[in-house]
Amino acid sequence: MLVCSLLLALTSLHSIAAAEKANVNVILWFDTEDYLLPADDDATKRLAEMLTQRGIRATFKLVGEKARVLERRGRRDVIAALKKHDIGYHANFHSVHPAPSEYLADCGLLDGIAEFARREGGGAADVRRILGVKTLACYGQPGSSWASQTIAALKEIGVAPHGVPCYVDEGTHIGLNEQPFWYENALVVYHMGQNYTRMDLHDPAAVEPAKQKVSAIADRLRGQGGGLISIFYHPCEWVHKEFWDGVNFRRGANPPREQWKPPPQRPAEETEAAFKRFAEYIDHIRSISGVQFVTASDLPGLYPDAARSEGASEADLNQIAVRLTESKISGADFQVMGDRAYSVADQFELLARAVGELVEGRKPRFPLQAIGLLGPDGPPPLTAEATHIDWFAFRDATRDVIDFVKTRQRIPSRVFIGADAVPPADFLVALAFAYDYYRTNGKLPLEGGATLGKNLELLPARRVAKDTPDLFGGWIIHKEGFRAPKILEVARLQAWTLKPAIQKD
Ligand SMILES: [Zn+2]
Question: Could you report the per-residue pLDDT of 50-71, keeping only the tens digit for each?
Answer without folding.
Answer: 999 999 999 999 999 999 999 9
